[in-house]
Amino acid sequence: MRLKQCEYMNIRVARTEDSQHISALMHQLGYQISTPKVAEMINNHQQHNDDIYVGIQRNKICAVIVLIYFTYFPDAQKLCRITALVVDEKFRGKGLGTALLNRARDSAIQQGCSSLELTTNMRRHNTHAYYEHLGFEKTSYKFVMSIPEE
């Protein structure tokens, strides 16, 4: 099934010079990641054959999606996990996130993945409804244990 497409956003692979814009998008989600750290992460993802795409509208980076590919040990299936998806709050509700999810789905298929998965914060109820509307299913719970720095 193809998700509804946004017709007016260009999508391309992220470059290190996009780091400041991506950092600002992450801040909108509450993640305080510095511009140099984002540049480092972009380089790391490229070395591991993972993908980061940015969405550009009106010559401005207004969205980002980050994909990692891995083999899930219990069933030996290759999966694509979306580790970040952010659309600038000024551009939301215009189909930009859906366009990036289409790109993620296409990339997952090209990589031979059997599924596309993501996690989202429990407090983002509208986001949960959005993903379910697009065909994602809630299949598990995520438990996290913080490890303090020593």
TrEMBL record:
Keywords, comma-separated and alphabetical: Acyltransferase, Transferase
Domain of life: Bacteria
Native organism: Amphritea balenae
GO molecular function term, any single one: acyltransferase activity, transferring groups other than amino-acyl groups
UniProt protein name: GNAT family N-acetyltransferase
PROSITE patterns to which the protein is assigned, alphabetical: GNAT
Pfam families xrefs: Acetyltransf_1
Matches recorded under PANTHER family: AMINOALKYLPHOSPHONATE N-ACETYLTRANSFERASE-RELATED-RELATED
InterPro entries from the UniProt entry: Acyl_CoA_acyltransferase (IPR016181), Bact_Acetyltransf (IPR050832), GNAT_dom (IPR000182)
Residue ranges constituting the N-acetyltransferase domain according to the UniProt record: 9-150
